[in-house]
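Proteins fold reproducibly. Next comes an illustrative record:
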Amino acid sequence: MKDKRSNIQELKLNYFIQAILPIFLISVSCDRDKNHPGYDYFPDMAYSKAYETDAPNPNFENNSTMREPVTGTISREMTVFPYEKTDEDRIRAGKELENPYKSATDSILIRGESLYNTFCLVCHGPAGDGKGHLYTSGKYTFPPASLVNEKVKALPDGSVYHSITVGIGIMGAHGSQIGPDDRWKIISYIRNKLQKN
């Protein structure tokens, strides 16, 4: 009787160990510590030995990890603008580029006003007269251009588009911040609202 009872107890102990042992092993293997959970099958794939973007890199002649794009290539998201930041190209853009929103609808003017308020207002001011907050507060000592004077009114839309895209004088380029379509909407807002007041 004792042998049978001890066999049953031994079997129960074996089943218990077989059931508990995998659970214990799984729970232990999933947490090395709070900063490094689990164990990796291929640690070299999980923890790359690559150089950081701005770190020095002895593999290249200029010791820079960050590489310049191959000459002549452009990003897929980039729209090529075939004009340089020169007076000649600004004049050429004025002759060659046409505003698709010359007869602006209300929705175009609303979008143009929103974009103007986001990107242009702080320098050129709410009336477009160059008296934006940066200038009137004294943080910026050089007055931005007035968009409502006769000189700017006489400029072709393409020239204004060129100035927004690549910048002019001390004004920086906004081509990377404002999409091509939205630049025309800003111009339409300036022409149809600010310059009419």
About this structure: The chain is about 50% helix and 0% strand. The domain at 87-194 is CATH 1.10.760.10 (Cytochrome Bc1 Complex; Chain D, domain 2). The radius of gyration is 33 Å. The chain has a mean pLDDT of 87.
